[in-house]
Specification:
Number of domains of chain A: 2
CATH architecture of the largest domain in chain B: 3-Layer(aba) Sandwich
Strand order of the largest sheet of chain B: 2-8-7-6-5-3-4
Distance between the termini of chain B: 66 Å
Shape of chain B: globular
CATH class of the largest domain in chain B: Alpha Beta
Order of helices and strands of chain A: HHHEHEEHEEE
Radius of gyration of chain A: 21 Å
Helix content of chain A: 25-40%
Oligomer: heterodimer
Largest interface: A-B, 14 and 27 residues
Number of strands of chain A: 6
CATH architecture of the largest domain in chain A: 2-Layer Sandwich
Number of helices of chain A: 5
Shape of chain A: extended
Largest sheet of chain A: 4 strands, antiparallel
Number of strands of chain B: 12
Radius of gyration of chain B: 21 Å
CATH superfamily of the largest domain in chain B: Type I PLP-dependent aspartate aminotransferase-like (Major domain)
CATH superfamily of the largest domain in chain A: Lrp/AsnC effector binding domain/regulation of amino acid metabolism (RAM) domain
Number of domains of chain B: 2
Structural class of chain A: alpha+beta
Chain lengths: 159, 396
């Protein structure tokens, strides 16, 4: 199962037939494993990494540090839940250190993100403070380098 | 002045070198460079870039000014790391100060090994087919290569029995290279033990080129020197090129007993002097923390190995599943062509580059070396093209 997941994580378009050959496992077994992983929510979604800047769409991204007041019994989960429900929140993490939640927030432009912070996020009762870092350039995302340097070509024939 | 005989240009070249035919691979390279859009299964190196932490170590060394010669043996720290690694990986122990030399790849290691041991007319036994450099290197060292045919039906494994029939008073060494370039064959511990027994019985050296030792699938590699009672008669050649994707760094090593190392060091110090220091420092980093990448790359090759073997067999180019290195070695019987004709036509008609088996010896004829150290999509596309080609050229 783990090896099937690794292949799909790297390239979700790999077919069960291809995986079957690669791992020397019967194709039905591969299909069953994938189905099971989908049902158990081990596989959450098949996505594509897109370099939107290259596709001509501009978007703003900000990394937001949030300090919150944890609540009795539910700790940080309840406030986190209230925050990550916003569609603007692309990723949300509870972190150790000088603040509590790290958010990646997306918007069409900086203004949109600024509005989200000032109108939705900061006014929340449990939110003590926020620090917004606008992303200036994306170098690498989900393990993929977004601006790869020119491919280095190897000799086509070597001993 | 009149007594000086006029020389044609060719007369300057030694007979020894003249007798060596130019590499069949080079001719192909020239042909290939004139064609666009070629998918190459003709490479002989990993398609990975050296892991970043290793490259970073070399960059750091340059920044710090490590640009000088090292000891002829190589940096002591590298030899110490290497001794630990060989003990850990293969259970064989070498003294870092007396039994290891860092070389510029196995290519140099093989050359200095042969030059250190061969007297004119000494015979060296090699499998046929074998890596392209073995026979020319033996010849250039003044030796006589004695080829032992190997066959697909026995998985291109050299048999101790066949070796024994060719042992003569002039036999100095047996040169083997497993996992094999070009066949992808590995030898089992039992098969290697039979060769070790011959070495002991006839008091022969065994030069064991184990550059692909970390690329085996299914069973772990047996280091020849780790077999009982043959360590002192073994010259182990290995390096960083294939396991750590470091081909261009030219960095490898030889391990042997002290006397042989001393002899090899003479050749090494007067020809190479030492391996480049930045490559040596990179190699230290590789040994210290490169294990994860080795395994990652091995697993990638393993998947591709299955895809290419299945693909080749499906289109009628039969081959067993290779157990090591990153080559499949399919037969082309069904076309009736020579391997060179097949490779040349395939390149021109379908733009797929493979290496004709004949390049690796007489008994490589009828086979192709197909390297699978290339992307899965390229392997699949190459198989599709080869399928078209084979259908067109199937002998009636």
């Amino acid at each position: 199962m783990k090896r099937i997941l690794e292949i799909l994580q790297d390239s979700s378009q790999t077919t069960p037939e291809q995986i079957s050959v690669m791992l020397d496992i019967p194709v039905n077994e591969v299909k069953r494993a994938i189905k099971q992983a989908e049902q158990e929510k081990i596989i959450l979604k098949y996505k594509t990494i897109i370099n939107w800047a290259k596709a001509g769409r501009n978007e703003a991204l900000a990394l937001i540090e949030v300090k919150v007041v944890p609540q009795r019994n539910v700790g940080f989960d309840s406030i986190a839940d209230r925050i990550y429900q916003f569609p603007q929140v692309y990723s949300a993490y509870l972190v150790s250190g000088t603040y509590d939640l790290a958010l990646l927030v997306k918007g069409e432009n900086m203004q949109e993100i600024a509005s989200f912070v000032s109108e939705k996020l900061a006014p929340m009762e449990q939110v003590q403070s926020t620090v917004t870092h606008f992303l200036l350039k994306r170098y690498k995302e989900d393990g993929e380098i977004l601006h790869p340097t020119k491919n280095i070509s190897r000799l086509s024939i070597t001993p | 002045m009149e007594s000086v005989t006029a020389r044609t240009h060719n007369n300057f070249i030694s007979q020894k070198v003249n007798a060596i035919s130019p590499s069949g691979i080079r001719r192909f390279f020239d042909l290939l460079s004139s064609i666009e859009g070629v998918i190459s299964l003709g490479i002989g190196e990993p398609d990975f870039v050296t892991p970043w932490h290793i490259r970073e170590a070399a960059i750091h060394s340059l920044e710090k000014g490590y640009t000088m010669y090292t000891s002829n043996y190589g940096l002591l720290e590298l030899r110490q790391e290497l001794a630990l690694y060989l003990e850990r990986q293969y259970g064989v122990s070498y003294h870092p100060e007396q039994e290891l030399i860092i070389t510029t790849g196995v290519s140099e290691g093989l050359d200095i090994a042969l030059r250190a041991i061969i007297d004119p007319g000494d015979e060296v036994i090699v499998p046929d087919p074998c890596y392209v450099a073995y026979i020319p290197d033996i010849v250039m060292a003044g030796g006589i290569p004695i080829e032992i045919p190997t066959y697909q039906k026995s998985n291109f494994a050299i048999s101790a029995h066949d070796i024994e029939t060719k042992i003569s008073e002039r036999t100095k060494a047996i040169l083997i290279g497993y996992p094999s370039n070009p066949t992808g064959t590995t030898l089992s511990r039992e098969e290697l033990s039979a060769i070790a027994e011959l070495a002991r019985k006839y008091n022969l050296l065994v030069i064991s080129d184990e550059i692909y030792s970390r690329l085996t699938y299914g069973s772990n590699h047996t280091c020849f020197a780790s077999l009982p009672g043959v360590k002192d008669q073994t010259i182990s050649l290995n390096g960083f090129s294939k396991s750590y994707a470091m081909t261009g760094w030219r960095i490898g090593y030889v391990a042997a007993n002290r006397d042989i190392i001393e002899a090899m060091l003479k050749v090494h110090q007067y020809t190479m002097l030492c391996a480049p220091i930045m490559a040596q420092l990179a190699a230290i980093e590789a040994l210290k923390s490169g294990e994860d990448e080795i395994e990652h790359m091995r697993q990638e090759y393993d998947k591709r190995r299955r895809v290419i073997t299945k693909g080749l067999n499906n289109i009628g180019l039969t081959c067993p599943t290779p157990q090591g290195a990153f080559y499949a070695f399919p037969g082309i019987d069904i076309t009736g062509m020579s391997s060179e004709e097949f490779a040349e036509k395939l390149l021109i008609e379908e733009k797929v580059a493979v290496i004709p088996g004949s390049v690796f010896g007489k008994h490589g004829e009828g086979f192709l070396r197909c390297c699978y150290a290339t992307s899965l999509s390229d392997i699949e596309e190459a198989i599709t093209r080869m399928d078209k080609f084979v259908r067109r050229h199937r002998k009636s």
